[in-house]
Amino acid sequence: MQRTPFKPHNRSYEKAPLDSSPQPFGPDTDWLFLAAPKPPTGLFGHTAPQQFTAPVTVHYDTYGIPHLYAENLHDVYQAFGWVHAQDRLFQLEMMRRVGTGSLAELLGEDLVEIDRFFHTLGIPAHARESAEAFRKNAPAPVQDAVTAYIEGVNAFIREGKLPLEYRLLGHTPRPYTLEDMHGIIGYMSFTFAMAMKTDPLVTYIAERLGPDYLAALHVHTGAEHTRIPNHSKGRWLQSADPRLPQAALADLLDKLPVPLLMGSNAWVISGERSASGQVVFANDTHIGFAQPAVWYEAHLETPELQFYGNHLAGVPFGLVGHSRTHAFGLTMFENDDQDFFVETLHPENPLEVRYGEAWEPLRVREVALAVKDADSVHFQVLESRHGPLMQEVLPELQAVTEQPVSTWWIYTKQETRALEALFRMNHAESPEDVAAAAALIHAPGLNIMYGDAAGNIAWWAAAQLYERPEGVDSKIFRDGSTPEEAAHEYLPFSLNPQSINPPSGYVISANNQPDTLANGLLYPGYYYPGDRWARIAELLESQEKWTLSGMKAIHLDVKNKQFPAYAAGLLAAVSTADFSALAPALEVLAAWDGDHDLDSSAPLLYYTWLYYTLQEMMEDELGPDFFESYLKTFMHIRSVGKLVLDPTHPWWNRVDEAGTQTHEDIIRRGLEKAQKVLLERYGKAETWTWGRAVSLEHPHPLGAVAPLDKVFSVRAPVVPANEEAVNKLAFDLNGTGAFSVRSGPAMRILLDFGDVEEAISVLPTGQSGNRFSPHYADQVKLFVEGAYRPMDMNRERIQNQSRSKLVLQP
Q1: Which domain holds residue 678?
Q2: How confident is the model at residue 395 (pLDDT cuts 50, 70, 90)?
Q3: Residues that bind Ca(2+), according to the entry (predicted)?
Q4: Under DSSP, is residue 689 helix (H, G, I), strand (E, B) or coil?
Q5: What is residue 803's predicted lDDT score, i.e. its pLDDT?
Q6: Partners of 500 in the β-ladder
Q7: Neighbours of 484 (CB within 10 A)
Q8: What percent of the chain has pLDDT over 90?
Q9: Could you count the other beta carbons within 10 Å of the beta carbon of residue 143?
Q10: pLDDT at residue 43, rounded to an integer
């Protein structure tokens, strides 16, 4: 099918003179920034549009993935803007409105609380500031690529067929801007920020319950948790650092019309461990399931660029991707990059707070929110030297202290250079290029995984790390009036955790604790216990030579080898003879190996029993809201063993009942509740299976309103849900006996540099966000069954097999 050619506006302008001075991008990047013309600034804060200089051809493959061929970078990025908007414009709309705090303008007053939260945190203001810094400081090639992409998006908004969602909402999208793009980056950074979900709870436990209660949890990494090993010999970037010179939060996040980034796995093995003798690369990012899926795949080719990437809507550069010579991926670093401060208000002036021996005025930021079908909402954001006061948008804080609490978040303290970093990674020609790009990322913290055709493998923890004053616990609120407690000493990138060509022959990251920095500091964070890292390493060590076919089994592994020990601890505390109705399920649980087979009853009984045991154990101290919040933190997953297997900690004591309860009493009561729920829901225990309890739906932003859920959301077949296996298909632990998978692999990628053109991938639903596209959900079955499809870069094969073609003319 020949698509109608797209012709952008013909708009003339005078070319600015050549800028003969290359703009620095890092310590060793002069090769990238040759002199380039800079068009004058145009409408909406981005540069005026340029026409294509030559035709751009786009071939769409069997799964609707575009393969763009152009004569130069400007043309290919402008064409990509059009193509990306054509498939994902409404997704872009949702993401930019979250990041710019303007959801209520489109969706109404129910979203005011979310907008107010993001404005208070400062993401929209930071987006404006970063956009202005980008215009002033970003290298010319990056600016030109971003500008071209924005014009391509806006050309589609002006001239393309808008998706159905806009007609249903009665809305015409405004032009896309550089501020919007930085707002999307801010939204992504926020989804990584674990402190707001964790620190109020940790501080509450420390202050209201005491150190013994806190010690029973793994607030910080324990000795039994797996750490990512460093290997710094031969590091490519030594010391140069281009950066330095009224609902509860959980309820609020449930209203977000875009998914949250949750975790991820990635591993890269050297040629010594592969059957091809070349590096093999694997990545599966863990993100909240949604429709459309987060990642958009695209293949861009010009004489100087051959890149196949996974892109966020509204961002021109892939966050994960590969060329014919290198590949990079990511997981969440999970470093702690946010601190909370309890401020002391002046007794007679609520706009002043104490700092040292003096009183300082609070800064006042005025915000006006446009609201669909309602009056605008006006409010003030108050900021101390540490950051915005959050108690108005985080009611959990009021349970911790009556004083105002401010937050210091490194993301809003420095301009983001993420676009520069991603451009550099997409255009990299060496590991040095990727290392220099990683050094530009200050937040969110990312594990950058790398492999290349030259045989190199590497991992860098990319983030602006800092050292807190001695004795400060990063998870406990600090005193905002004490100057020494407010200090943040920035560390150079050269100290960050990393591993380059280690003797093991592989690098792995799975959101677990990296080993100590080069200066000996074990960096605090919100790390997972390392079950996935250890399982991946165990599987990699199980054979000498790996193929892509063998790697698929690792991607799809759903066994957690720690959980059977926790289940045994539960079983040891009760007399199974007292639960004769559960005998078949208890026998299966006693023999459980940690697999999540859909035909087994073990996971169903384990998770339901665990929930009620923890509820009986903790809810009396925490209350129902904080207990449910606890279950959504990293602490829950890495503290289960410590809580269940240690009979001496104080959580076993019921503070709301007279007398002393033992851990056996609590576990028995948990099983009694689980028995009641499961027998009522599923009947006899011998009929229970995990598959009966699990469901997966990919929700669309408009799917919250019936009957639009039937139109837009995508129901998937049953998957082997689990809390912490390699193929992580996560759910909220609960006591209903039904478990709805909320997040999991947002893609699965496998690549062998022995034959890059045979790389494979899969998305959870499909490539297109347009409801009536054949590619809206054509990968659902592949994903659930553990199948893959090509990430093709063979031009002849792509042209021969192309299902449709789009030609964009000058």
Answers
A1: 563-595+601-688
A2: confident
A3: 336, 339
A4: coil
A5: 87
A6: 458
A7: 11
A8: 83
A9: 23
A10: 26
Quote the CA–CA distance of 427 and 306 in Å, as a whole number. Answer: 8
Residue 656 lies in a domain: yes
Q: Is 28 flagged in the annotation as binding?
A: no
For residues 9 and 350, which has the higher predicted lDDT (pLDDT)? 350
Contact between 673 and 735 under an 8 Å Cβ cutoff? The reply is: yes
CA distances from residue 168 to 46, 106, 115, 162, 206 in whole angstroms, order as listed: 29, 11, 22, 11, 49
When comparing pLDDT for 759 and 240, which is higher?
759
* More confident position, 349 or 192: 349
Is the per-residue pLDDT at 576 higher than 80?
Answer: yes
| Cis geometry, peptide bond prior to residue 49 (ω within 30 degrees of 0) | no
* Token reading at 501: 């060509």
Higher pLDDT, 591 or 237: 591
CA distance 500 to 503: 9
Tell which residue, 152, 169, 164, has the closest CA to residue 103: 169
Residues forming a β-bridge with 83: none
Q: Which residues contact 51 (CB under 8 A, 6 or more apart)?
A: 8, 10, 810
Total-model pTM: 0.90
Number of domains, the chain: 1
Q: pLDDT per residue over 693-731, tens digit each?
A: 999 999 999 988 888 999 999 999 999 999 999 999 999
Alpha-carbon separation of residue 1 from 38, 316, 806 (angstroms): 37, 26, 9
Answer yes or no: is 557 a known binding residue: no
pLDDT in the model for residue 193? 63
**Has residue 303 been placed in a domain?**
no
CA 732 to chain centre: 17
Task: Tell me if 572 is assigned to some domain.
Answer: yes
> HSE on the CB side for 39, CA within 13 Å?
22
Angle at 160 between CA 420 and CA 709, to 5 degrees: 90
- The pLDDT tens digits for 193-220 are 678 889 999 999 999 999 999 999 999 9
Question: Which residues contact residue 737 at a Cβ distance below 8 angstroms, ignoring those fewer than 6 apart?
Answer: 604, 608, 677, 678, 681, 682, 693
CA proximity to 539, closest of 524, 521, 553, 522? 553
pLDDT higher than 90, residue 254? no
Nearest to 481 by CA among 608, 353, 383: 353
Euclidean distance between CA atoms 546 and 15, whole angstroms: 54
Mean pLDDT throughout 648-663?
Answer: 88
Q: Which amino acid is at 294?
A: V
Question: Is residue 249 a contact partner of residue 197, using CB atoms and an 8 Å limit?
Answer: yes
C-beta separation of 381 from 120 below 8 A: yes
Residue 120's pLDDT band, with cuts at 50, 70 and 90, is: very high
How does DSSP classify residue 5? P
**Residue 788 is assigned to a structural domain of this protein:** no
Distance, in Å, from the CA atom of 694 to the CA atom of 683, rounded to the nearest integer, reads 16
Annotated catalytic, 494? no
Exposure on the CB side of residue 770, measured as CA atoms within 13 A: 15
Helix (H), strand (E), coil (C) string for 413-482: HCCCCHHHHHHHHHCCCCHHHHHHHHCCCCCCCEEEEEEECCCCEEEEEECCCEECCCCCCCCCCEECCC
Confidence tier at 192 by pLDDT (50, 70, 90)? low
Q: What are phi and psi of 516, to 5 degrees?
A: -60, 150
**Which structure tokens are listed for 492?**
């150079």
Sign of CA dihedral 684, 689, 690, 691: negative
Q: What is the DSSP string of 692-711?
A: HHEEEEE--GGGGSTTHHHH
Mean pLDDT of the chain: 90
- Tell whether the model's pLDDT for residue 474 goes beyond 50: yes
Cα(790)–Cα(761) distance, integer angstroms: 6
With vertex at residue 314, the alpha carbon angle to CA 760 and CA 448, rounded to the nearest 5 degrees, is 50
